[in-house]
Amino acid sequence: MLGLYFLIDLGYNVFYTAFPLHAISTLNWSIAKMGVYFTVLSGLLIIVQSTVLPRVSRKYSDAALIIFGSLMLGTNFLLLIPGNIFLTYLAAGFFALGDGLMWPSFLSLLSKVVGRKYQGTIQGIASSFGGLPASPDLSLAAFYMKNLLEPLS
């Protein structure tokens, strides 16, 4: 489970590092347009986690929501490839649905697997373990910006 936690966190870090580069180089977005996108994405996440998640978590298991959410996240990434603005905003909906269902369900399953006695300990370890991908992603993004995009300007 810790390995999966690490991979999920790695995926989020890659997205949050790579998307601004994609938005600048492919979509030709300004920082303001990226701000609007992330505001819409955040609003959709709030809606999914406050209205959809409570309803579906009563009907479906954590494992089913993790699988469905992961498929929605995968669809999100596929929709980003063409570099179309409509598809990019549609992808935000898939990201919000996928993340809003998958991540809380994954954390719930993790806490159930380890039992009540070790919940805090394992979630603390998992959180630390999940933070490992952040530094390499940011370093790679800085390298990309410096060596590949700077010569273009």
List keywords for this structure.
153 residues
Indicate the topology.
Elements: H1 2-25, H2 31-59, H3 62-80, H4 85-114, H5 119-130, H6 134-149
Helix pairs in contact: 1-5, 1-6, 2-4, 3-4, 4-5
Describe this structure in words.
With 153 residues, the chain is mainly alpha-helical. The protein is 85% helix and 0% strand. The radius of gyration is 17 Å and the shape is globular. It starts with a helix and ends with a helix.
In brief, what are we looking at here?
With about 150 residues, the chain is mostly helical. It has helices at about 1-25, 30-60, 60-80, 85-115, 120-130, 135-150.
**What's the N-to-C terminus distance?**
44 Å
Q: Let me know the largest β-sheet.
A: none
Radius of gyration: 17 Å
Overall shape: it is globular
Order of helices and strands: HHHHHH
Strand content: under 5%
Structural class: mainly alpha
Count of helical stretches: 6
Low-confidence stretches: none
Q: Share of helix among residues?
A: over 70%
Tell me the quaternary state.
single chain
Mean pLDDT: 83
Q: What is the number of beta strands? A: 0
